Amino acid sequence: MASLQGTRITWLGHATVLIQTPNGTNLLIDPFIAQNPKYPKNYELPTKIDYVLLTHGHGDHISDAVPVAKKHGSTVVAIYELADYVAKQGIDQDKTIGMNLGGTVELGDVAASMVDAKHSSGAQDKDGTHYVGVAAGYVLTIANGPVLYHAGDTHVFGDMRLIGELYHPQVAMLPIGGFYTMGPKEAAVAARYLGAKTILPIHFGTFPPLKGTPQELAALVSPEIEVIAWNPGDTI
After folding, report:
1. Contact, 117 vs 109, CB < 8 A?
2. How far apart, in whole angstroms, are the C-alpha atoms of residue 55 and residue 15?
3. pLDDT confidence tier of residue 221, bands split at 50, 70 and 90
4. Which pTM value belongs to this model?
């Protein structure tokens, strides 16, 4: 697989991923913990979570953003409207970073670039459904390390070629479950468009409709692309 040069990637079920850089920056993407049936039993997050990155506003991606940020002193990064929504849920404004598509922010030793995704993004709470911007993905360029891509929830789209051309991700975290996102057939095309040599499947197996598997994806990609068949709690 692609060399991670000391970076650690831990899958915590669904789309929740912990990334730890060699310099000690910890980033948690789309925290879905308390109600996540695939969150690894008894797994304890690091004491320090520097940044929580959110791809969109659905509950299975943001439900634990505020509790995690409060407990671990994290700064929450999201598209502008979602960052504003999270701040209103009890996070200090100076502990949020509201950015937008095409932008890049420096998160310690990680340059986080927000890229397009094709998905809905309304946030729901006791007051109804709220507009919180559009869905996004992140390209994470780690200083002296690899370039990672977390696609969030998305269908395959042609401009994934631009993500490949602009950022050259070596490792891509792609949803493969189907139903709410792309499945293996579409993810195989996404892998080709991106040019990534290592695919880490996410957003599968959490709930019955999410039927896609890493094995199905592996059978559809070209031989030079490696699909990692990992389980929640695994670290690469």
Report:
1. no
2. 10
3. very high
4. 0.97
Phi (first) and psi of residue 213, to 5 degrees: -130, 155
**Is the distance from CB of 149 to CB of 181 less than 8 angstroms?**
no
Which of 58, 83, 159, 77 is closest to 118 using CA atoms? 159
- Residue 185 structure tokens: 């057939």
Interval 33-79: pLDDT, tens: 999 999 999 999 999 999 999 999 999 999 999 999 999 999 999 99
Give the residue ranges of DSSP H helices in the chain: 59-62, 65-72, 80-88, 160-167, 184-194, 214-218
Helix 184-194 and helix 160-167: axis angle, to 10°? Answer: 40
Q: What is the DSSP string of 175-226?
A: E---SSS--HHHHHHHHHHHT-SEEEEES-SSSTT----HHHHHTTS-TTSE
Contacts of 184 (CB under 8 A, 6+ apart): 176, 178, 212, 213, 216, 217, 220
Write the CA distances from 210 to 50, 204, 224, integer angstroms. 30, 5, 26
For residue 10, give every residue at least 6 positions away whose Cβ sits within 8 Å of its Cβ, in sequence order, or none: 17, 18, 19, 20, 233, 234, 235
Measure the CA angle with vertex 71, ends 70 and 73; round to 5°: 65
User: What is the β-pairing status of strands 128-130 and 123-125?
Assistant: antiparallel
Whole-number pLDDT of residue 3: 85
